[in-house]
Amino acid sequence: MRSLFRTFSTPALVALFLIAPAVTVSAQDPRIQLSHLDHLATRASQTVDVSVDERLIQLAAKVFNDKDEDEAQIKKLVSGLKGIYVKSFEFDNENEYSAADLDTIKSQLREPAWNRLVNVTSKREGNVEVYVSLVGGTVNGLTVLSAEPKELTVVNIVGPVDLEKLAKLEGSLGIPDLGIKSSKKPKDEQ
Amino acid sequence: MNEDYLWDKSGEPDPEIQELEEILGSLRYQPKRLDLLDNSQQTQRRSYVPLLAIAATLVIAALAGFFWLSYSHNQRQILTTTTTVAVAPTPAIPEVKKTNEVVKSTDTTPPQVTVAVNRHRRTLTKAAAPSKEAVLAKEQLMTALRLASEKLNLAQRKTQNPSVNQIRNQHKLG
């Protein structure tokens, strides 16, 4: 038994040293794969597919006008980011995407790498889930999964992001405020 | 003395005059055939020079005009795009993949963008010319941020004000 242990202990240790950094790196990388959803584009009436890596973010940051307060704010917000990836599908009918499609995303958003911050469930309005990746107490990544009856949106932001500032962006600098008022409830719910 | 010799060489010749005649005789007109071809060739050669100069000037002017026009056109395009983003950076989704596009009114690029900028050539030359890729990246970035912000706010609103159904369901579950 001891000889067996000695025989396998050295390769096991070597394998551990090789695998451990890879696992650590993958755990720290808050980028998720969205390509599993590509097949939905054929059914969608409108598809938004945005993939902006660190190089493009830096390139875009040069275009922002520092003298403009809003643009300076956005530039500051995106300055540390390593990537923003979005896939959004709008459908004409309901039930165009399946639970399996959602699972391909959710399966990547497991602990300890990801922590679910918000989970709003509604049969009529759909579900919204917000996940954050924390490293050393700071947000290192953000994923928003919005699954509405006729719309499926996944936003994956890689890098340190200020959630409060990001939420405030709506309604400024050409980012339209959708005017969704919480006090206004649908008729069928009243 | 008969001076007819001076008139028509008919009288008695004067030796001094004869001597002068011999000296100056070498300068006498000697008829020879007129070679018009040589003269015309020389004339033609001479006439090419100004024509060539004019042609070269025209070619240089045309080239300069072409380069100037293309340069100003590029500048106009770049600045127009920049102005679009600066004045009304649409949250639009234009450069992104779209299938069976159903464009909403908020997603269309406003038509005011056009070209009034071209007249302000000083502004054009002073403005930094961002690359097309940078402008495109900015548009994509804005689209992504818009969606992220929108969904975050949606989640926040739903969290703060859960719908009646959720409350009912929680009640049933509780």
Strand share of the residues of chain A? 25-35%
Proportion of helical residues of chain A? 25-40%
Taken in chain order, the helices and strands of chain A follow as HEHHEHEEEEH
Q: What distance lies between the first and last C-alpha atoms of chain B, to the nearest angstrom?
A: 164 Å
What is the rounded Rg of chain A?
A: 21 Å
Looking at the structure, what is the overall shape of chain A? globular
Oligomer: heterodimer
% residues in beta strands of chain B: under 5%
Content-based structural category of chain B: mainly alpha
The strand order across the widest sheet of chain A is 1-2-6-5-4-3
Would you report the number of β strands of chain A?
6
**Helical proportion of chain B, percent range:** 55-70%
Q: Which spans of chain B have pLDDT < 50 for at least 5 consecutive residues?
A: 81-115, 164-174
Would you tell me the overall average pLDDT of chain A?
77
- Describe the global form of chain B: rod-shaped
Number of H/I helices of chain A: 5
What radius of gyration of chain B results from the CA coordinates?
A: 47 Å
Measured between the Cα atoms of the first and last residue of chain A, the distance is 71 Å
Report the total helices of chain B: 6
